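Per your request, structure below.
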């Protein structure tokens, strides 16, 4: 697709955008559950009134229906303005807006549902956010390893060689006076970290091997 990260054509985008707009403006009572999430995300991708749409989807995320909350938090990541990307990240530790268990949804949305124009920048920003906030994340969620694993996975979405080098360096504690401290810190998520490193290594090797054939 030309205008977003979704592999859907422009006609489908228009239909989803219209559905979202009518739902937001109260012209239709609901959107079918099977396309609710992607309709909200496309609405954010294509928004011409970003403040209005960001606040509206955030309002949806305060509802009591877990399915609707999940869809809205993921869709927030589809926002098409870098200033609101930073606003979404600033909300992550605000318990009044986002519960701890839902933090990975906002992060994942920023790395998956962002429009193409922001996708790579968002993924770079997510990793910088993760490493900058690692001490807080580890302190708050080391006892909830499932959550910490999901936060890491949501923020480690880059797929280039530079990121692989950076990820290895971080996981080995090369940025610390005592590298062993990082080894201890990531003990609970070590398998997820190592799996991500392994996946990137294999993917990059395959890309180098097969690029000419694909061309």
């Amino acid at each position: 697709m030309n205008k977003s990260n979704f592999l859907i054509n422009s006609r489908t985008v228009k239909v989803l955008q219209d559905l979202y707009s009518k739902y937001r403006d109260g012209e239709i009572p609901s959107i079918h559950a099977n396309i609710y999430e992607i309709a909200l995300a496309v609405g954010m991708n294509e928004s011409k009134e970003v403040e209005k749409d960001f606040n509206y989807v955030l309002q949806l995320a305060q509802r009591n229906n877990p399915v609707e909350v999940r869809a809205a938090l993921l869709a927030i990541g589809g926002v098409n303005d870098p200033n609101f990307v930073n606003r979404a990240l600033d909300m992550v530790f605000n318990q009044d807006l986002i519960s701890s268990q839902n933090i990975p949804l906002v992060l994942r949305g920023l790395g998956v549902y962002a429009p193409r124009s922001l996708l790579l920048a968002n993924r770079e920003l997510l990793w910088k956010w993760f490493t900058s906030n690692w001490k807080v994340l580890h302190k708050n969620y080391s006892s909830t390893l499932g959550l910490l694993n999901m936060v890491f996975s949501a923020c480690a979405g880059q797929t280039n060689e530079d990121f692989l080098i950076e990820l290895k360096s971080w996981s080995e504690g090369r940025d610390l006076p005592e590298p062993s401290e990082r080894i201890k810190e990531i003990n609970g998520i070590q398998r997820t970290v190592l799996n991500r490193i392994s996946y990137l290594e294999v993917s990059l090797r395959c890309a180098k091997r097969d690029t000419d054939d694909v061309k």
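The chain has twelve helices and no strands.

Regards,
D.
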